[in-house]
């Protein structure tokens, strides 16, 4: 019983906000259920809704918790799998059996169907928490169902009357648990860590909840990751060969960039743009049946995508500190300021890369939504994305290293960028490309360049740090 208690506490230690919120919703559902049992029928639907949301949240956290608990070393513990099974039984009693008892006391019909529904919600939450990639498979189902609301309503009415529906739901639950838990119980060799500045967008859903938790990728993710590694290796070999033929400052800087930013070579950038464009196309095709929205928002989304990697720069540079000592010794700078300036100038290439991606995504979005004035969007997006990239690079280069401070900086950058984009779009539309665009470029680029030069001056004045980050 002590093992089950410790596993239960793990969720409160790792995700306290979610655990407390889920239990508060369950308490609210219990209050509504009591009122329903006392004769107030209006509280019945509310109790069911609150408990369904609480169940999904709790088991999403449990799935996330399993990602850290099911490390390879944990299987050396005595009876580890049996303890997990015991904890699962306790969880089912708390979140499935007890609600069924309350429903039976109130005379709710279709109890087997209700039990299977609760199991389905719990299994979906476990899958989404233990395998974040599953969201890419679940949400399209709801999008497709949203195309046919009348058909879905008729289907559910027929499903309630069918005796095979509970068995179908149980089969779906078994498949979801097989898809989510089986990979966690499989003991595999740990994959080598990727570069903290890889920027492939594959690791955004591979969040780590605890140090040492293995990276888990599906077959598609592994293939794409291997392709990125091949492109990075090829780009590094080309840079080395060019430097050996003709050593110089520019080719030396290119080598530093290939080392710090392995997946920011032209081929990898093209692959990243293609993958994101495929997802964007699917999204727009999926929502085309819905009511139209303002096409101008496409440019805002494109800029948000282009600057979304800069928080990773802050985290990655901290994680890379011990490895940067080798780079320092290899470069052998005459002064510490020279080394700091080399690193900052190497990272400056992220600004034109962000500009390129913002323009490509804006053009794609404008084409998909048939924007009436795409050149207006492209013009404003070009100015704002370059200014926002310089400001984001500057702030995350010298900004706070803690999670809270980094989050605040990122929110300031994102909301500030959106405000400048909408203001710049109005300004160009009111005053024209020459006057409005010139004023926008003067203000936005002036601010971005000023922040970047100030941040670079601050970064160069700092002493290099090669200590490993705490935790």
UniProtKB/TrEMBL annotation:
Keywords on this record? Answer: Membrane, Transmembrane, Transmembrane helix
Where does the chain cross the membrane?
Answer: 17-37, 111-129, 136-155, 167-185, 269-287, 293-311, 346-369, 375-395, 407-427, 433-455
Q: What name has this protein been given in UniProt?
A: Uncharacterized protein
**Source lineage:** Bacteria, Pseudomonadati, Pseudomonadota, Gammaproteobacteria, Lysobacterales
């Amino acid at each position: 019983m002590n093992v089950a208690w410790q596993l239960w506490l793990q969720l409160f230690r790792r995700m306290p906000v979610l655990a407390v919120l889920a239990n508060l919703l369950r308490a609210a559902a219990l209050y509504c259920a009591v009122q329903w049992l006392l004769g107030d029928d209006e509280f019945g639907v509310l109790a069911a809704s609150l408990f369904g949301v609480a169940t999904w949240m709790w088991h999403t956290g449990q799935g996330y918790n399993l990602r850290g608990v099911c490390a390879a070393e944990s299987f050396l513990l005595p009876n580890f799998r049996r303890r997990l099974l015991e904890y699962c039984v306790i969880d089912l009693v708390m979140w499935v059996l007890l609600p069924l008892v309350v429903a039976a006391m109130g005379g709710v019909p279709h109890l087997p169907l209700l039990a299977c529904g609760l199991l389905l919600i719990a299994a979906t939450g476990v899958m989404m928490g233990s395998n974040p990639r599953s969201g890419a498979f679940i949400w399209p189902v709801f999008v497709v169902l949203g195309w046919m609301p009348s058909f879905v309503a008729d289907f559910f009415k027929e499903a309630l009357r069918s005796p095979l529906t509970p068995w179908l739901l149980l089969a779906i639950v078994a498949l979801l648990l097989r898809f989510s838990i089986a990979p966690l119980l499989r003991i595999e060799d740990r994959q080598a860590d990727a570069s903290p500045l890889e920027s492939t967008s594959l690791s955004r859903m591979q969040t780590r909840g605890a140090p040492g938790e293995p990276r888990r990728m599906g077959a598609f993710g592994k293939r794409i990751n291997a392709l990125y590694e091949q492109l990075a290796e090829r780009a590094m070999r080309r840079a080395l060969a060019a430097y050996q033929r003709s050593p110089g400052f520019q080719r030396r800087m290119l080598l530093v960039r290939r080392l710090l930013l392995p997946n920011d070579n032209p081929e990898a950038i093209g692959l990243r743009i293609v993958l994101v464009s495929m997802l964007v196309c699917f999204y727009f095709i999926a929502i085309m049946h819905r009511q139209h929205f303002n096409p101008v928002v496409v440019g805002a989304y494109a800029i948000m995508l282009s600057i979304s990697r800069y928080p990773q720069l802050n985290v990655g540079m901290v994680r890379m500190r011990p490895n940067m000592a080798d780079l320092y010794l290899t470069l052998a700078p005459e002064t510490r300021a020279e080394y700091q300036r080399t690193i900052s100038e190497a990272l400056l290439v992220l600004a034109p890369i962000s500009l390129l991606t913002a323009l490509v995504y804006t053009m794609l979005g404008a084409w998909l939504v048939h924007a009436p004035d795409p050149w207006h969007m492209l013009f404003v997006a070009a100015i704002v994305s370059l200014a926002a990239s310089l400001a984001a690079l500057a702030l995350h280069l010298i900004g706070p290293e803690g999670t809270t401070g980094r989050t605040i900086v990122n929110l300031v950058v994102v909301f500030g960028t959106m405000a400048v984009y909408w203001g710049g779009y109005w300004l160009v539309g009111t005053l024209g490309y020459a006057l409005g665009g010139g004023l926008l470029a003067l203000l936005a680029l002036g601010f971005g360049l000023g922040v970047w030069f100030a941040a670079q001056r601050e970064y160069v004045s700092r002493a290099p740090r090669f200590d490993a980050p705490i935790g």
